[in-house]
Amino acid sequence: MFKVFGAALDANDDPVKVFAKCSYLNRLAQKIIDPQKEFLDPYDGLLEFSQVLQQEKYIKMGKFPIESWLTPKPKIEDFPSLNPEKFQEFTNSGTIAEYSIKMEGFVRDNILPDIPLMIGADHSLTGGVLGALSEEYGPENILVVIFDAHFDGIPASISLSLAKYAEENKEKVNVLFPQHLNSAELEAINLKDSYTCASYLDYLIKDGVISPQNLIIFGCQDYPSEDMKAEGDERVKDYIDYYFGFEKKGVKFIPSSEDKEQMITELGEILADFNTPYLYISLDVDVCMFKEVLAARFMNVIGIEKEIILNAALKVKDYMDTKNCALIGLDVMEIETYMLNKELKKSGEKDRTVEFVNDFLNIITP
């Protein structure tokens, strides 16, 4: 059975995201919105809109406990804590890692031996689920496949240095960083190298929770380009060296490219070389950002068409069937609560994250 639970950690320090929370609380305080009609996080939203998750094989386990001020829709009394500096302090404190450790215990005590299906926001909590599964099955036995527009293994210092380089050299190289910031705003960011949604894979590999040889990243758009490789700036070199260091350790990257069919072929070829008895799948919805998905926390990419991701999912399902590989866990993360299932009034464009997740689950968990 699949035990479904929510994990709505959302400590994003982006001023735009923080403003959205403050605006929500202002409307709540003025009774402009009815709290009884508002879903509070991605777990509530998907349970409300997803027909697939209504099936009996998905047992609803409720939510992993998180302080309300760190959730997508805080309480009115949390208002004084809602500012970018406060969220940066929280990130720098190392508490995100502590939440991941708590998640490990939550999965061990409440989910296993059934299959965890986590629905949430901050991708770092995937580390907690993998921690519990790694202890149960052994890291050498688990293949981890992550669908993500970003590789979440880069320290903040390297990412921020690259962002500063990009701001200074807009005409040269286009690189990804969480939001468009000017030089003054970049200088104001004070993030330490700690366990976060942008770096958790680095920690999991260093701590032996997962094996780098058993990790596949599909759809990443921050893979160093040929233009980047030609740059002589030390900040770019540091990024490239750190990124490719994972490749040397055995991580398999299938970056987004114009030849989408080649991506699927490459995934099939990589999977053919594996014979692991167990599989974990993580779906970051931003892999389809601005295609079917509008409800992603980080909006600095134009993602891959849903059809390509679903074809990749079919390759993974084929691997499970032909190699007799058991699915031991999966998650759907980085969902932006405020945009989930919304329709934009001006353009009429509708978020189809729920539809995307439904189709993905129908393939992986038929």
3D architecture notes:
The chain is α/β, with parallel strands linked by helices and 366 residues long. The chain has one domain: 3-Layer(aba) Sandwich (Arginase, Chain A). 40% of the residues lie in helices and 13% in strands. It contains 13 helices and 8 strands. Strands 2-1-3-8-7-4-5-6 form an 8-stranded parallel β-sheet, sandwiched between helices. Residues 177-184 have low confidence and may be disordered.
Summarize this structure as a short list of keywords or feature phrases:
366 residues; alpha/beta; eight-stranded parallel beta sheet; 13 helices; 13% strand; globular
In summary, what is this structure?
The chain is an alpha/beta fold and 366 residues long. It has a single domain, classed as Arginase, Chain A (3-Layer(aba) Sandwich), CATH 3.40.800.10. It has 13 helices and 8 strands.
| Biggest sheet character | 8 strands, parallel
Helical region count? Answer: 13
What is the name of the CATH architecture? Answer: 3-Layer(aba) Sandwich
Q: How confident is the prediction overall: mean pLDDT?
A: 93
First-residue to last-residue Cα separation: 12 Å
Structural class: alpha/beta
Record the SSE blueprint:
Layout: E1 2-7, H1 15-29, H2 42-49, E2 58-63, H3 84-92, H4 95-110, E3 115-120, H5 126-137, E4 142-147, H6 156-168, H7 183-188, H8 200-206, E5 215-218, H9 226-229, H10 234-249, E6 252-254, H11 260-272, E7 278-284, H12 306-322, E8 326-333, H13 353-364
Parallel strand pairs: 1-2, 1-3, 3-8, 4-5, 4-7, 5-6, 7-8
